[in-house]
Amino acid sequence: MTSSVRYLSTARYIDAPNLSIDVQGVTFAYRDLGPRNGVPLILLNHWGAVLDNFDPRIVDGLAAKHRVIATNYRGIGASGGIAPVTIDEMARDAIALIRALGFEKVDLLGFSLGGFVAQDITLKAPDLVRKLILAGTGPAGGKGIEKVGPVSWPLMIKGLLTLRDPKFYLFFTSTNNGRRAAKAFLGRLKERRADRDKGPTPRAFLRQLKAIKAWGQKAPQDLGSIRIPVLIANGDSDIMVPTANSADMARRIPGSQLVLYQDAGHGGISQNCADFVPKALTFLEA
């Protein structure tokens, strides 16, 4: 990886070069695409996700109008260091990364674990964030978040037994509509053939789960102090971060917008990417 070409624009996420930057002695991996003007959009992804777990349809759709930077957490994929066991550390890492990239103002899109991190970034560095998109996520101390592990393990085992990616069961509903969407999504994640990111290590995977459990047990944060535009999106049947958390955040964040997709689960924005991308673009450009 190299940071020497980080300002090159590319049309498609599957072709975006793997880049890296040193942040306080730790190498962070990222990909960078889209136009160079305007406020960049930083993508923060789910538990165990590496660069190849970002949905290329969502990234490409957003990068048609915005500079988009997808990144790994410390200790995940090609990023160096040891994976943190708190959301606080992940947020501080992300703030340091954003500043190392030279940005004074960014938009954030946080999915699942990334939504926890994005909220914490916004509360820690409010002047850094212009707009916030929270997808498939929930607040500190949110309903059922501490149970992500117990909910996930049986479906991960089911994935192994059925030779399917566990996200087939974890991110989508068990209806015909959900199953079709799951197959399409998992197919998109395999489109990139060359220069794929490294998968997460079991140690990093378990350390991130500790951070998720701690977030679920954490005292609620003052979401009412978030005074920037916020878009919240999820499926109506999220079993990983229960959908009730999306409604809870929408009630607590002044002026926030809530989009709930019917017959959709944790991966609702990917299942409905043809609807979500235009909504996100309208939100970012308003």
Automatic annotation (TrEMBL):
Residues 40-267 form the AB hydrolase-1 domain. Pfam families: Abhydrolase_1. It comes from the Bacteria. This is Pimeloyl-ACP methyl ester carboxylesterase.
